[in-house]
Description:
Elements: H1 15-59, H2 63-66, H3 71-114, E1 118-123, E2 128-131, H4 134-139, H5 143-146, H6 160-173, E3 179-184, E4 190-201, E5 207-216, H7 218-240, E6 244-248, E7 254-257, H8 259-265, H9 270-274, H10 278-282, H11 286-299, E8 301-310, E9 316-324, E10 327-328, E11 331-332, E12 335-340
Amino acid sequence: MKRTEPSKPRVEPSETLHQLPLKFRRIERREWRLWISAIAVTLLLTGGLGSFILPGFWNSDDGFARFSLPQAVRGLVGLALIFDVYTVYQQLQIHRIRRQLNEREELFRLISENAADMLAVVDMKGRRLFSSVAYWKILGYTSEELKGSDSLEQVHPEDRARVQAAADKARKTGLGTRLEYRIRHKDGRWREIESTSSVIRNAKGEPEKLVIVNRDVTERNRASESLRRSEASFRSVIENAPYGIYRATAAGDLLRVNPALQKMLGYESRAELLKMNLARDLYLDPQEHRRIIELLAMQQKFKDVEVEWRRKDGSLTKARCGGFVVKDGGKDAPISKCLRKT
């Protein structure tokens, strides 16, 4: 039988955020019905009051009597109309505020769903209240799976004490600490994340929640480690090379030299050699240095060029050199290797 790979579960990590606008619209429609009912009742009440007033108003032959209606009745009618106007005004204000709230909720939803970093909100006991979609994208957990869980549950056992100490410090001081630790992916692998947190306080100024921002730095750390190893290997090659290697600016200022070059030129230390200038102190003929710089400018490299150098004791030595251009802070800094001729 053909083996089929298990499909990923259907993901609705932001279902709650998606439902908020719908819930707000339902509440708004319900409130409009209630307000309309209240207005209808007050209008009926106004009409009922008017039914007592109008017959006497039209049947009376006394013009003065028409305008001498009871003050209480006219006051009630006025209050009913004022209430209707106020009701409409209040509902319009509520509608405006709720629309602004909906826009902010929508903005928050867009940010949380599209942010590359993992966003979480936890209470003071460490229970997750909210987790962004990035948790599923990076760690494989949906919001429903994480909701209510202990925020330390997926943290590597060796790192939990540090994470707990950082969380306690954030609760006390209100200042988050940048921290790196390992966290378990849903498939069991460990990922390295960089985390910061900040405190949300209630109206009394007491810590109520923690907002945590996590960034997956696994690949970055792997790249840094690979670079570190590569640089260590490169340094080892340079340090142990049997021929002289140096790095210098186009003006001739030495930036780096290896032990073989130091020995070739007879200097007691690299620090002493680094104070020398190629064109002024080492090349017997400064024009030779200038020709090499011109070759580098045109071809970005040179090889098998014979040069004559001046050693520390004043004696001369010949070498066959080759090199190429590298960038150092946006400036050209040629690297050359030279083999002493015997």
